[in-house]
Amino acid sequence: MLGRAPALLAVTRARARVEFLVFIREWISVVFTFIFPVLLLIILGSIFHGQRLPGDVDLAQYFVAGMIGAGLFGVSFQNVAIAIPIERDIGTLKRLAGTPMPRSAYFLGKMVMVAFVALAQNVLLLGIGSAFFGLQLPDTVGRWITYLWVIVLGIASCTMLGIAASGLVRNGRTAPAIMSPIAIVLQFISGVYFVFATLPNWMQTVAAIFPLKWIAQGMRSVFLPDAYRAQEPAGSWELDRVALVLAAWCVLAFLVAVRTFRWRARTDD
Fold it and tell me: So where are the chain's domains?
């Protein structure tokens, strides 16, 4: 019993290394993961730069905060929900299931890899945002703490959601066609590309069901002035609700994943 935790930690570390090596060998995925958000940030940030929101907030700063949340969502939910069905189709999951490796190490390895990539992407977006679009880095310990727990809960909830969604996809060929549009639509209605308070009420209601809206709101609380919180639909940052919703998605996605995740392709059944 005492040796299980260190053993799991060692296997998870080895599995995370494998996940990272697989990721960097797929250079198209690497380019898309890092370059696409940067290009969007540069193009749309340049378009919005200089336009002012209430609270004397540059619209480009609002957009940068949203893009940080969207990047995290893409790295976790979208990439995981697409990668797992492909791994299932080529037999990787079936082979792993037949080894002595604890199955939990596979999922923990995914989460570690996602966390590493997400943090690297965050550093890149923060650097560009602060250098070219006037993004103000957190100036208090409290804001840095908020930034960290939003990232942790965001990665956990969205990665678990991606794992759960992967069990609902028939095969790896259809995964990008299903998951990419879902991610894009959620970005449009969650306050990433548009000011959330200006969206129709029904869009706000739908977006509030999913994690991305709350991740983006948490990031706005970190990077925008406190004066802007009055412009949020609830008139505040609602950080307690941000934490509650993201934690709830961790639990819900886990329960769904337990029932839907498959180690074998449907053609193997």
Answer: 4-268
